[in-house]
Specification:
Helices cover 36% and strands 18% of the residues. The strands form two sheets. Strands 3-2-1-4-5-6-9 form a seven-stranded parallel sheet, sandwiched between helices. The chain has a two-stranded parallel sheet with strand order 7-8.
Length: 242
Amino acid sequence: MRTIAISGAGSGIGHTFLHAFASDPSTTIHAIDITFQEEIHDEDLRAKICHHECNTASLDSVNKLASSLNGQAIDLFIHCAAIRGLVPSVTKKEKDPKAAETIEVMDPETFSKTLQINILGSFLLIRALLPNLKASQHPPAKCVVMSSRMGSIGSNSDGGSYAYRASKAGLNAVIKSFAIDVPDVCFTIMHPGRVESRMTHVREEGAVDAKDAINEMMPVIEGLGKKDSGKFYLKDGSEIPW
């Protein structure tokens, strides 16, 4: 038996992870999101899933979640909660998501909200779950963070995507520090590829189904160990430069 927590589990790639792990009857899953847009319809699967509504950018909300999970060990935490950082007024007029994150249109509100959710929210949530991860009966517990190659400074050859790139680079720095400061938990950053995850108002060109991306990541995640803590991987397990 093991216990898994998944943030961003109400939709997109997080919800697809929820389905993937829910097929194991011995697994308990804590599904975390600000709201749940989709539900598991199989009655047997639903019985194993505990839903927790949490706004990760709110310390009070995160503390409430931590209290509800007090004393419960978590063996694997998959962190998917994030936003894309597109300027809302532009997405109403433009179909191409790239048009809503350029140097010309980016505004302070969109930029700061993206940093608050993708960096600060991630930090607050992971910090709150550290006692649960440390309590795992199957050490080392794993914290697997869905990031993006857009957070790799060395891989940035296209420019643009200002808020999202900055937020993911910051997120990567935060997770690297967790790996150093909390050596008894395995912290790994993964880029799932361009996935259809409802983070944008239209399906982006080249985006793959979340199920296909997760099928590729699952064996990599299951094989993670202490040697992988602080590493940044593509969905196939190959390493990405910082």
